[in-house]
Amino acid sequence: MTEVSIEKLTKDYGQGPAVNAISLKIAEGEFISLLGPSGCGKTTTLKMIAGFEDATAGAIRFDGRDVVHVPVEKRDIGMVFQNYALFPHMTVEQNLAFGLEMRKIPKPQIREKIAKVLDMVQLAGYAERYPRQLSGGQQQRVALARALVIEPKILLLDEPLANLDAKLREEMRVFIRDLQRRVGITTVYVTHDQAEAMTMSDRVVVMFGGRIAQMGTPSDIYERPANLEVAEFVGQVNIVRGKVGGGMVSTAFGDVPVTGGHADGTELMLALRPEAVELLPVNSGAAGVPAKVLSSYYSGSLVDYRLELAGGATVNVQTFPRTRFADGEQVLVHAPAERFWPLGSAA
Amino acid sequence: MNAAPAKKGLGPLLLIAPAAVLIGVFLVLPYLNIVVMSFRMPGQGTPYAPGFTFGNYGKFFADSFYIMQVVNTLWIGFLTTFLCLVLGYPVAWQLARGNSAFRALGYALVLSPLLVGIVIRSYGWTILLGNNGIINRTLSSWGVIDGPLPLMYNALGIIIALVHVFLPFMILPIMSAIQGIDPSLELAARSLGASKLTAFRRITLPLSLPGMQAGCILVFVLSLSAYVTPSLIGGLRVKTMAVTVVDALIDTFQWPFGSAMALMLSVTGAVVVIIFGRLTVMKWKA
Q: For residue A341, what is the domain's CATH number?
């Protein structure tokens, strides 16, 4: 169990910083995701934690000890690569034994540990196979087992599910998360898939352009995004604009109270998640803004509507398909005031 | 549901036909002719006489001179192959993994021996290695040596020249094998606690074995059958099998015996290559 602390970590390849003075504390046993679009610096950060890349500046501490100048092989990390990086010339057993051999662990103990970890990843009986004889999901689990069998201080995962098909990806999400909880290992997970980051992590670190845009629990990130970029990157969002006046923002949905001392007259952007909006029949008599259904997309458990408000603005709404509205139908739209989240003044 | 029968027209056959005809007419037929020739009666004043015999093979096995020559040829082949492997591997690694500025230059340097004809290259080596050659003259003018070093007219000279000539055939397959190895494998090994050297020894080296295997077979076979270099550098004193075969066929006009010797050389080479292939079987490859 290791606590990782990163201070002002910077990586500059010579064309401006790829990672720009980021600081981050990861608690013992915590599952952290680095989430962001490609080129945001998340993988570079992971590589610096692993020791594959030298830091240009800053510190990385494992339990208080600075490891910036410690070579990869002495950092005691477990790494899972996007393409698994299983040794093709070794059987599953030999792959798993590699790290243990490097640690000079006696043969009988190696055999014991391998049997245990194979059980853990549900691959008992596959010890003699070569990687090419395994499916993608099985290779993934061997890679995970190989990283865990050495009982490293921290587990690093670099987009490990990117090469799996959608169904397997969801299974593996749960599998990795359960395994991580059981082992209790401090974990850093790099992904560009917000659903992965949200479902697996204790905390999500959203990165843009080499900086941390926001750090928080999945619900923090989703419900209280720090800015427009984060709001748009994590899930779908409606951006509602309105002018401030007397502690309220007047929007197409009506007046929404805001805190934070915005001067009267400034134009604010508010985030409104599609599932926060309710759709009601016109004849229901409930409070709401009239709107017209432009189009709808049915996906089984949910329906996505695209609506046009009376004022001309469009809004996306996600609901359960209990009541269906037809394209062109008039409806009432209602969004509770507390579901609007201010993103700052519009540029 | 009826599965559509696989379309197997004449297309593929037509595509390989030109190469097949070329190989058939100019390689397989002459080879068969050599096999037949090796069983013909030796002639007096003619290349061969009517009738068939096993006598040519008997003559070959009866005389330890010929057996020793096969052994010598194999020995030269082994050493040349080994030296090419040892010298070529680091170059191949640099070409595959080194920085790109070096790569273009290195590639040109590796291929450059192939741009010059083999006769010219071998003559070049005689200028360097001869008793009155550049190396011996320089060393004696410096007072390092009293008499000339025996660099030519022996196996050493042949091996030096063959290594130079065949080095590209070792480097290129190894280079392409190393290029095919995912660099993240070495990173994975490092993350598991292996030093750079251990990661190379346990991961990159065994994974480049297919390239080493191909390179070794190429260089070995080429060394066995090399004629120009051994005949120019070995002179009359050291003869490899290929040189003796040509002597028999052209100088002494013994076509049947020459054919028998040529076949024995081919068979020994093939046996060595097959044994080598068996020893280097890679179970992990599909």
A: 2.40.50.140
Q: How confident is the model at residue B1 (pLDDT cuts 50, 70, 90)?
A: very low
Residues of B in contact with A99 (CB under 8 A): 192-193
- Identify the closest residue of chain B to A133 by CA–CA distance: B286
Enter the ipTM. Answer: 0.85
B185 close to A (CB below 8 A): yes
Give the ranges where chain A is alpha helix by DSSP (H). 42-50, 92-102, 107-120, 136-149, 166-183, 194-200, 218-223, 228-233
- CATH number, domain of A116, equals 3.40.50.300
pLDDT value for B7: 57
User: Which candidate, A28, A68, A35, places its Cα nearest to that of A49?
Assistant: A68
Residues in Cβ contact with B258 at an 8 Å cutoff, skipping those fewer than 6 apart: B245, B246, B248, B249
pLDDT tens by residue, A245-284 = 878 888 888 888 887 777 788 888 899 999 999 888 888 8
Is A151 within 8 Å of chain B by CB? no
Cβ within 8 Å, pair A52-B187: yes
Q: Which domain holds residue A337?
A: 238-345
Q: What's the pLDDT tens digit per position in A295-346?
A: 999 988 999 999 998 878 899 999 988 888 889 889 999 888 888 998 877 6
For residue range A23-76, what is the model confidence (pLDDT) as tens digits? 999 999 999 999 999 989 999 999 999 999 999 999 999 999 999 999 999 999
**Distance of alpha carbon A187 from alpha carbon A190, whole angstroms:** 10
Contact A85 B184 (CB under 8 A): yes
Nearest to B192 among A52, A88, A98 (CB): A98
> Same domain for A290 and A189?
no
What is the tally of structural domains in chain A? 2
Domain co-membership, A247 together with A203: no
Give the mutation candidate from B191, B282, B285 for the A interface (greatest A CB count, under 10 A). B191
Final residue belonging to a domain, choices A233, A250, A285:
A233
Identify whether B45 is part of a domain. Answer: no
Identify which of B191, B194, B203 has the shortest CB distance to residue A50.
B191
The secondary structure of A262-320 as a DSSP string is PPTT-EEEEEE-GGG-EEEEGGG--S-EEEEEEEEEE-SS-EEEEEEETTS-EEEEEE-
Closest CB from A72, A78, A87 relative to B185 = A87
Same domain, A228 and A249: no
Range of the domain at B154: 73-239
